[in-house]
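Good morning,

Attaching, inline, the backbone tokens for the sequence recovery test we're adding to the shared suite. The designed sequence is right after.
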């Protein structure tokens, strides 16, 4: 009986300690932040296949986005399965158009590439390389060599982004073990050999990762930042953390990953709901993103005190304006990006 009481007492103290720890950490993460970086450099991410999925003329949309919003910084993706439709044959025409239109307007470009790139389904492997891991990695490096050699002469490319959230293995439609640290190290080494003049960005999930593996490999580390997501069976979920959550994680990687350069590579500015945008009502879409939420998340991002932020959702703003006749998100974006 004495031993049982002792064990129960120890368990009780451990639970009390853990509960207290969670409360303390929650208070720290949500402690009010008053100062904010109002000079945060703002850009956008643009994905041509996402614009097409919204039934838009993606080239027209891209040019009007650059011109009407006065974009100065854009993150673009090189999508392997779109570029290499047949083994060893590369079609860069879509990417050429995007980079050249940006260059005409003195728009700086972050070019993301790899097995993973921005947007669902996350992994963009040509179907003929899916099954054989060894061949896939060999062909990936060959493709990336051609890519770097093609675009390194463009002065408006400011950074290479190697892979997109490569250390988030449970999100996306990807083969098991598609990316590991060894492959990323080889990708980075090749990029640095082919172009030692530009810095490399490696990204990770803001809320679901500890950042270390990505941060220690990067010249610049990029975090995603989402506030409200949709997750069955819970429905809409807002992450219960304030800007200090990101500031503290940045402080941790400064000392443990030797990384001081942190940007927001992907800031939520579009809906995340129970279905595809075209299949959701505007009312449903606006539950997780609308002009008021957009303004709030911009302030939240500024309070992280990072110096650069790429907004996520410009294709949706354009779709709202041109297809649905609602330009409110577009007008807020104009103010944010000016």
């Amino acid at each position: 009986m004495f031993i049982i009481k002792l064990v129960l007492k120890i368990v009780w103290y451990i639970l009390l300690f853990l509960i207290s720890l969670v409360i303390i950490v929650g208070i720290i993460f949500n402690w009010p932040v008053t100062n904010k970086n109002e000079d945060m450099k703002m850009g956008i991410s643009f994905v041509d296949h996402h614009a097409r999925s919204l039934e838009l003329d993606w080239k027209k949309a891209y040019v009007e986005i650059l011109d009407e919003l006065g974009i100065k910084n854009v993150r673009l993706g090189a999508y392997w399965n779109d570029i290499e439709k047949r083994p060893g044959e590369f079609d860069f025409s879509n990417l050429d158009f995007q980079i050249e239109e940006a260059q005409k307007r003195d728009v700086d470009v972050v070019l993301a590439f790899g097995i993973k790139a921005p947007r669902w389904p996350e992994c963009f492997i040509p179907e003929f390389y899916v099954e054989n891991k060894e061949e896939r990695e060999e062909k990936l490096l060959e493709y990336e060599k051609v890519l770097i050699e093609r675009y390194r002469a463009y002065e408006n490319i400011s950074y290479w982004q190697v892979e997109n959230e490569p250390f988030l293995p449970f999100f996306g439609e990807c083969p098991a073990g598609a990316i590991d640290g060894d492959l990323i190290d080889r990708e980075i080494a090749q990029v640095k050999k082919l172009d030692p003049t530009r810095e490399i960005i490696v990204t990770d999930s803001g809320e679901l990762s500890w950042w270390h593996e990505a941060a220690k490999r990067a010249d610049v580390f990029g975090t995603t930042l989402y506030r409200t997501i949709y997750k069955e069976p819970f429905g809409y979920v807002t992450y219960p953390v304030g800007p200090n959550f990101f500031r503290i994680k940045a402080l941790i990687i400064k000392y443990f990953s030797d990384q001081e350069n942190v940007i927001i590579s992907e800031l939520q500015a579009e809906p995340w709901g129970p279905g595809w945008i075209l299949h959701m009502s505007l009312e449903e879409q606006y539950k997780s993103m609308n002009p008021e939420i957009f303004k709030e998340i911009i302030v939240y991002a500024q309070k992280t005190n990072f110096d650069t932020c790429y907004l996520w959702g410009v294709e949706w703003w354009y779709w709202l304006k041109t297809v649905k006749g609602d330009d409110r998100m577009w007008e807020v974006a104009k103010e944010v990006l000016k």
